[in-house]
Amino acid sequence: MSEVPVVEFHAVSKRFGPVSAVEDLSFTVRPGRVVGLLGRNGAGKTTSLRMLLGLTRPTAGSATVLGHSYGDLPHAARRVGVSMDAIGPTPGTTGRRDLLVWARTLGLSTARVDEVLDLVGLADSAGRKVKGYSTGMKQRLSLATALLADPELLVLDEPVNGLDPDGIRWLRGLLRSLAVEGRTVLLSSHLLAEVEQTVDDVVILQRTLRYAGELSALTSGGTERLEDRFFELAGAGSGGNTHA
Ligand SMILES: Nc1ncnc2c1ncn2[C@@H]1O[C@H](COP(=O)(O)OP(=O)(O)OP(=O)(O)O)[C@@H](O)[C@H]1O
């Protein structure tokens, strides 16, 4: 039986003037999977996620989410939860007020806001201004926004950054439970050891696609380390991207 991919990149390329950020990227994400999009700084991860969400237009190719381009997806804001730096809250607002605005936009209840604040561990700080939040607290608030509408797909750009060990463990458990419910998670990261404990599938991007498939196939069922396989596939280098 063929399954409609939750995410599909088809021959996607993006240039910013002389910089080739992403070139001929194709991969699919299956439902109920936690997928790690991995690459060095400047590898094209955020650009790819932005193209998926209609925030950046590809130079060539197309990306679809739940069978549609994001702009054509009915109820996209409720079906796709997003955590990304660019979608951050107004610093002068409180965490709770920020979520209430999102909830109103999405047609959700105040009760749901309090539920999600509790879920991400921000209930006690919800009345404080966001500008006084630590990096990890901002990350938790961003995750709360993504989770608000109980979406089918979560797209998370570097969700682990800034989280403390408790937060990382909590997030890992949360992503696993969402996948068990049949929801799908696409997260970007360069924290390979963390990703290795969290994801089912891996996409390695270094401007071009280097690997897309199951983590266990990449690491021979866990007998090899993801980090070693990453360096083999992504090549040696100290980061950044090539001009092409
Ligand atoms: N708006 C832009 N204008 C010009 N160049 C851009 C723009 N956005 C991204 N780039 C370039 O595209 C390439 C890919 O950047 P991108 O942010 O997608 O990488 P990344 O994998 O998310 O990196 P990081 O891990 O550092 O967040 C980089 O060379 C970057 O400088």
TrEMBL record:
SUPFAM superfamilies: P-loop containing nucleoside triphosphate hydrolases (SSF52540). The keyword Hydrolase applies. Its EC number is 3.6.3.-. Belongs to the ABC transporter superfamily. This is ABC transporter ATP-binding protein YxlF. The keyword Magnesium does not apply. It is an enzyme of class 3 (hydrolase). Keywords: ATP-binding, Hydrolase, Nucleotide-binding, Transport. GO terms for molecular function: ATP binding; hydrolase activity. Residues 7-232 form the ABC transporter domain.
